[in-house]
Amino acid sequence: MSDLIKNGEYRDLIHKLKSHIQSAQIKAAISVNKELLITYWFIAEQILEKQQTARWGDGLIKQVSQDLQQAFPDIKGFSVRNLELMRKWHRYWMQADEMTKQVVSQLDQAPIFQIPWGQNLLIVSKSSSTKEALFYVQKTIENNWSRAVLTHQIASHLFERQGKVLNNFENHLPSPQSDLAQQTLKDPYCFDFLMLSEKHNEKELEAALTENISQFLLELGAGFAFVGKQYQLQVSDKDFYIDLLFYHLKLRCYIVIELKTTEFKPEYVGKLNFYISAVDDLLAREEDKATIGLLICQSKDKTIVEYALKETGQAMGVSEYQLTQQLPKDFQSSLPSIEEIEAEIGEVGDE
After folding, report:
1. How many domains does the chain have?
2. Is 85 in the same domain as 197?
3. I need a labelling partner for 260 at 20 to 30 A (CA). Which of 44, 102, 323, 349 fits?
4. Rounded CA gap, 158 and 319, in Å?
5. Which domain holds residue 90?
């Protein structure tokens, strides 16, 4: 590639790249994530353009790497490997559909420039489509996911699970809330952080989830605030207990969660319907939106669920849960005490 150095067009290219990098340094320092990624995008764009129009081969990347590292010895990121990753990253998004391509090409607002380089590479390498990749980019921004959390969410196939809950939201919630509720809930829920025997019962599942409340909240998603387990409601001098009660900060409503370690049965809907009505009357304030119910069971038949939800008077969804780690059938772990649970999750304040 020694002849390339003497090429006037190539010298113009290097001058253009150096000028852009210097400009980025002056603007905000190249270490700032947005400026860094915009610079990476520009470099990749220029390399791809020259490889297509000037018909320079892969040797171009090696030469560009040498010249940029020599010009900017204090700046990391101009290795041959990283330049190749920049090119792959740029090409990946430019092969997307026109709508996605338009989103990522807007340098000032593009979501891909709002997350770290490592997360960008992880998403591109693990996503099977640009639609899926853009989903993980946007979720990373919304939830401020670390690379470790993002890796977990991709491994648990969040893209396929998000918004898939069977529900009747359109019949019982106004359009903005019904759409948000649909996208908030998942199917199935992945409880791979639990270690339960194959024959676990509902009390064991409930206790394990509250014992691992941080991981449970992560799986539920952003916006869920834990109110309590076995939450007591008094109706006509009789006590009733909700398995798990949450308040969702974006939906601005209570979410009642009932756990079933069996296959879905239509009669489960009646009990959940009762709890939703009671929470609306006894707990919800005037400014709160309608309470939503979520039944999480071990398995379900779609047709039976749809029939069961058809005539109910409250907004609810039905999901399954999955356990990828299980202890032997005969293993019985000791349940944590109430004091131990409270020490971990903290006492729930008054509404």
Report:
1. 2
2. no
3. 349
4. 14
5. 2-95
Tell me the CATH number at 321: 3.40.1350.10
- Together in a domain, 182 and 79: no
Contacts of residues 25-34 at CB distance under 8 Å and 24 or more positions apart, as own/partner, are: 30/75, 33/113, 33/114, 33/115, 33/116, 33/117, 34/113, 34/114
323 lies in the same domain as 195: yes
Domain contains 101: no
Q: What is the pTM of this model?
A: 0.75
User: Residues 293, 316: contact at Cβ < 8 Å?
Assistant: yes
Q: What tokens appear for 247 in the block?
A: 């308040």
- Examine the fold and report which residue of 48, 74, 95 is the final residue of a domain before the chain moves on: 95
Assess contact for 248 and 282: CB atoms under 8 A: no
Counting other chains too, the contacts that 83-88 makes at CB distance below 8 Å and 24 or more residues apart are 83/43, 83/44, 83/47, 85/121, 86/40, 86/41, 86/43, 86/44, 86/47, 87/44, 87/47, 87/48, 87/61, 88/124
* Confidence check: pLDDT of 327 > 50: no
> pLDDT tens, 123-173?
999 999 999 999 999 999 888 888 998 998 999 999 999 999 999 999 999
